[in-house]
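Contributing new records

If you add data, match the layout below exactly. Sequence lines come first and carry their own label; structure lines follow with theirs. Keep one chain per record. Anything else will be rejected by the validation script.
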Amino acid sequence: MPLFQTGNLTDGGSWALWQLEEPEHQLQQQLNPLCFPLQELQTIRVEQRRLEWLGCRLALQALLPDAGASCLQKNPFGRPFLQPASLHISLSHAYPFAAAAVHPLKPVGLDIEKPRPQLLRIKHKFLSEREQNLVGDNLEQLCLWWAAKEALYKLNGQPGLIFARDMEVAPVNGTDRLHALLYGRPYELHYQWYNDLLMCVVA
């Protein structure tokens, strides 16, 4: 079972990172069908997306050994939630990895990313002018800012958020943390690199 890494958040939250090494049928056999029905999986035609779908749910299942008959669903905005709703959750994937985070008390946002040249072309869409001057064309830094804002977007859980205007991110030098503002409200994000894979989480 390639559960790659787990960690804890403040106030009882936790996260898990799953590495996709097994074939699809073995991943399906590990998944609890009561908590994660496979009907949605059957509508996904691309194999990589199917593996990512399974990996996210296996990472979540690893964090919820006593979930019982709780069922994963999505709200009208695409935000995943458990029914009955007892925990806040967030999912992400960047093949060949998938990840999940849970928190018992407050919304949580998680994103995993790999540096990619496309971020250079769209940086004006997710960075303010001040952030663009700070980050420049450093691809790893662009990836970090993008992952941080994606995590904040997932934590917010509502449409209409403009990345370059409504979120600000700043590093905390010498640490694995970022300070951020979402609609003016402060948050602290934690991030970790695993070779070329970045994980960023906020609660």
